[in-house]
Amino acid sequence: MTKKFFLGGLLMLCAILFNSCEPDNNRNCPDIFYDDLKITAISEPKIVPGTSKLSMILKVNINSSSFLPVSGLTTGNFKVYEQGTNDECANAISESEANKQFSPSPQKFRHNTMIVLDLSASVTSTALTQLKSSTISFINNIITTSGDDSYLVSIAWFDGEDKLNTLVDFTSDKNKLTNAVQNLSASLSKDPSTDLYGAVIKSVDKAEQRLKDLQKESYISAYSIVIFTDGTDQAARYSKQVALNKVNGANSKISLFTIGLGTEIDKSVLTTIGKNGAVFPQNKNELEAKFIELARVVRGEANSYYLFEYCSPKRAGKVGLVLVVAYDAKKGTYTTKFDATGLTGNCF
């Protein structure tokens, strides 16, 4: 039933965008509307001046409760359809005309991962060694090539004080990150309590500001927050509801993940905070494996953004664009429109 309603909505949208291009027995229009994958436009299609090239950045996820990111797509996973003023239906663009180009790592894209570590007394007294090695493994799985600024990592920490401390600001330098982690010590922490909710609130605020700053520099960016803790909020400086409101109201480009160690955590709270993923090692010996598991999810999240470009054969009028993405046995449809007036034969 949900799929029928979804398809109905897509067809209605298609009618508005394309002057009625829904699949129709009389017109024999292709059935090209799918909802197994969710395709989100991070940037609407832009026409490169003096050409017929359209450029857009898309994010692809499994359209389910897990909302898992889809990485590893290639040009062959994308099929382009257009409906111009002389077309009754959206028709597939031939490969020779479309001249598709594709990049899973757009030059002006930055994926930012902030690791937020609980350094309250319960961690520093019992699990600091394991936390350090686990964090280094996480970094190595996020930044596979040192110096690749498409993937930037920052490390922050909190204890019972009302502040989020920066250990290392955003960088793609693995040596700088790992050296900082190796030098972590219990002496950093001045308050043995746990201000978990404060750390959540401040982490989201920092992410929001980072996205704004990168936008001013014309970067398209996304942000992942990974919070590690071994307990519950003890400082009671902020309420749970205020923290959850901050999480739920965060920019859609911000993903939140949590790692909860041991038996003194509240899994329900951490799962709600970690709305994009939460893992729960039972003891410190399981910590590194769980950090690596989550790093692969975060890396997949970063790699689910794609720069997709193609050349339109249209040269005038309003054009309806339908992009179908296929992944394994799943498909998803993205629709938009553009004005082809003034497009030329120049492309790429």
TrEMBL record:
SMART domains: VWA. InterPro entries: VWF_A, vWFA_dom_sf. PROSITE patterns: VWFA. Residues 112-274 form the VWFA domain. Residues 1-20 form the signal peptide. The keyword Thylakoid does not apply. Keywords: Signal. The keyword Signal applies. It holds the Pfam family VWA. This is VWA domain-containing protein.
